[in-house]
Write a structure and sequence with these properties.
kinase; D-amino Acid Aminotransferase, Chain A, domain 1; Kinase; four-stranded antiparallel sheet; IPK; ATP-binding; alpha+beta; about 15% strand
Length: about 350
């Protein structure tokens, strides 16, 4: 039982993304300075391995497994703990957010999802096939493939999942943000046009990329559904962490990934470094400009092409679509200590308005 306390009040205030993401049951306040995320064996295993890898400075510090009310949770250090009223952005990284085994299982034993069909037609009523319309349902891989083609995942290797700004404004309305210009506008909105925050994020992303390219763990694993968590505050402190390892899977023996090769079913490539390359490019090319005080009339627009690329249909067996600079020397003074934690901020800040339906 988590008792009401100043820490829990702080937790609820600092983590409104938990409500936005619909993951209320996945997180709890832990001991002071930690958070608890619902336990999955894959994520626990990955975090334990990462604590011994050179990627450790960029990963939430794993503090073991605890049990509350008969539920198991992974305990991690609070990544936001040393920030003052932080702004937070979650970007899903990679060209693919589903495991190859999920495709295989769905072909062998399709499970129809009415909820995902509803989400699909809210954004594009013309997307489902006539058979999917008749059933009023789609399979999960079909929905996830479509999501990637609707967003920037398939073309740029990452997508914005959510943003929460320090002033409390939050949004997850990024489902059809697809172009570099649209993403640049969203990034600028997130940092409020602050070039010093931009520089710190670029430096940190390049340090992560350099470390990934030398990491044995990274070379030998398929990293699916992971995110990069961006955090900054009004004091100028800023950093980025790798989070969410519930779908991180070891590759078959004697295989390795370069994380840039386009995915073809069977090669296990995830497009992680391709996405990171594109993200660094967008951040670097962005010309920061101060955002005006936000009103309904002056909110920046990120309207999308009304005819986005068509995603693979239901159980296609076709193949999907689908860094190394100096270490971040500013980290000790400008970012959190080398380890900290939070996981899955899959929905958090108030962006430019986007023409997409709520999830």
């Amino acid at each position: 039982m988590v008792h009401w306390s100043p820490f829990v009040q702080s937790f609820k205030k600092k983590y409104p993304w938990v409500q936005l993401a619909g993951h209320q049951g996945n997180f709890k306040a832990g001991e002071c300075g930690t958070i608890l995320k619902k336990h999955t064996p894959k994520e626990q295993w990955a975090l334990r391995k990462l604590m011994a890898d050179i990627l450790r400075p960029y990963i939430p510090e794993y503090k073991g497994v605890v049990e509350k009310n008969s539920e198991k949770y992974v305990q991690m250090q609070d990544l936001l703990g040393e920030f003052d009223n932080p702004s937070v952005m979650d970007c899903k990284i990679g060209t693919r957010t589903y495991l190859e085994e999920e495709l295989k299982k769905a072909r062998e034993k399709p499970k129809l999802r009415k909820d995902m069909y509803q989400k699909m037609i809210e954004i594009d009523p013309t997307e489902p096939t006539s058979e999917e319309h008749r059933l009023g349902a789609v399979t999960k891989p079909r929905y996830m493939q479509w999501r990637e083609f609707m967003s920037s995942s398939a073309t740029l290797g990452f997508r914005i999942e959510g943003v929460k700004k320090g002033d409390g404004h939050s949004s997850r309305d990024y489902k059809t943000v697809r172009t570099k210009d649209q993403i640049s506008e969203c990034f600028n909105f997130f940092i409020d046009g602050d070039p010093s925050i931009q520089t710190k994020y670029i430096r940190r992303l390049k340090a992560i990329r350099a470390t990934l390219e030398s990491s044995e763990f990274f070379a030998l694993h398929e990293v699916i559904g992971s995110s990069l968590l961006f955090v900054h505050d009004r004091t100028g402190k800023a950093s980025v962490w790798m989070i969410d390892f519930g779908k991180t899977t070891p590759l078959p023996p004697s295989e390795s990934n370069d994380h840039r090769t386009p995915w073809v079913e069977g090669n296990h490539e995830d497009g992680y470094l391709f996405g990171l390359d594109m993200m660094i490019e967008v951040f670097s090319d962005m010309k920061p400009k101060k955002c005006p005080v936000e009103t309904n009339s002056n909110k920046p627009s990120t309207k999308t092409d009304p005819t986005p690329a068509t995603a693979p249909s239901a159980m296609d067996t076709q193949s999907g679509s689908t860094s190394t600079d100096a270490v971040d020397t500013t980290q000790p003074s400008e970012a959190l200590p080398i380890s900290s934690s939070i996981s899955n901020v899959s929905s958090t800040a108030s962006p430019p308005s986007v023409t997409a339906a709520p999830s």
